[in-house]
Write a structure and sequence with these properties.
seven-stranded mixed sheet; three-stranded antiparallel sheet; 375 residues; globular; alpha/beta
């Protein structure tokens, strides 16, 4: 098996799985219980949360909220902040290339009376910072921009964005960092809050984080027993959190080494595939080497993805959340691509477990498949 769909989900580290099994077997108490068994688990959660802030180089002005993943983190953050702070203003800003879990939050908020500006991007998938500067105003209370795009890997200039937003004290800065954590170096202190999923970084599915400044006030989105400072009710997924923390810790230590290694894989494959007339490279600049987006100029990407799967090579078309739809990529359309190119996308996404031999194999098989199918 050759796996190049790491932007959708990654293989958990063996250590993560081992710890998960032990914690489920031995430390199964509910961390919200007031007996000593549960309180021990709760204390461990608190210690790990403190360690997470250290990993992100954040001080005690921030807090960690455990969620089920980036989608829930995005919803709690965006819906919660807009609704809680509507008395300060009703204008919000995001971009046209955000993940659906962000875009659909803003569409919902528009039905609640908020005004939303959707920023354009250039042909490389970067927002236009002069447009951000023009769009932001005294009524703006929230800017939400992803740190690294999940389809093409274009990465946000956090410092430039924060400098613009900081001129407006009522305005908070949120980022979906799901494709950036443990992959590209970020200064997380430039953000007021951010969210991600552990399964993107070799942790487990169904567990994620919302990290925020304590002064950022949010309305509840989930109601129940008031766990996680009242922001995310429900029993904490203790074993998944404790075990997946190891993936965050390990991969943050190795972030520079892994970046360099994966960049080499990306550069090799984009050079090899760029020489093929049938293929258009969508990722024109390597901001985040973990993602390489290509499009087929005359053939169906779904047919090619299936043919590769039959050979034990796994890639995807656009985002995993949208891959079963036949709609063109909203990201590529925003980048100025035509509908055929935007529909017939193949996303190759790497991890540091991939090899140059696997890159050679996918290139070889992809060319053979393209030569064998009709346009």
């Amino acid at each position: 098996m050759i796996y190049f769909d790491n932007a959708s989900s990654t293989k958990p580290l063996k250590e993560v799985i081992d710890i998960f099994c032990v914690e489920n077997e031995k430390n199964y108490a509910n961390p919200s219980s007031i007996n000593s068994f549960g309180m021990e688990n709760n204390a461990k959660i608190s210690r790990i949360k403190a360690d997470i802030l250290k990993i992100f180089n954040l001080n005690n002005d921030y807090e960690v909220i455990i969620t089920s993943g980036a989608t829930e983190s995005n919803n709690i953050a965006i819906l919660g902040y807009a609704r809680k702070n509507k008395n300060k203003g009703n204008h919000l800003i995001t971009s046209k290339i955000e993940h659906e879990s962000v875009l659909n939050c803003f569409k919902q908020l528009e039905t609640e009376g908020f005004e939303v500006t959707y920023l354009d991007v250039d042909k490389e998938g970067h927002i236009k910072y002069d447009e951000l500067e023009k769009a932001i105003k005294k009524e703006t209370i929230l800017v939400a921009l992803m740190s690294s795009n999940n389809e093409v890997g274009s990465t946000l200039d956090l410092k430039k964005s924060q400098e613009i937003i900081a001129k407006f004290p009522k305005c908070a800065f949120y980022s979906d960092v799901a494709q950036a954590v443990c992959k590209v170096n970020l200064n997380y202190s430039l953000l007021d809050f951010f969210g991600f999923s552990f399964h993107k970084i070799h942790g487990l599915k169904g567990i994620g984080l919302l990290v925020k400044k304590k002064k950022i006030n949010l309305d509840k989105v989930v109601y129940g027993g008031n766990q996680e400072n009242g922001l995310r009710s429900g029993t904490i997924n203790y074993p998944s959190f404790v075990s997946s923390f190891i993936a965050l810790k390990t991969n943050m230590i190795d972030i520079n080494k892994n970046f360099k290694y994966v960049k080499g894989l990306n550069e090799f494959l984009r050079k090899e595939l760029g020489n093929t007339d049938e293929i258009e490279i969508n990722t024109s600049k390597i901001d985040n080497p973990y993602i390489l987006s290509i499009s087929l100029k005359t053939k169906s990407s779904s047919v090619v993805v299936e043919a590769l799967s039959n050979k034990g090579i796994y890639v995807n078309s656009v985002s995993a959340c949208n891959s079963k739809n036949d709609e063109p990529s909203h990201v590529l359309l925003a980048m100025g691509k035509d509908k055929f190119v935007a529909r017939n996308v193949i996303r190759i996404s790497f991890s540091h477990f991939n090899t140059i031999e696997e890159c050679k194999k996918i290139k070889e098989e992809l060319i053979l498949i393209l030569e064998s199918i009709r346009g």
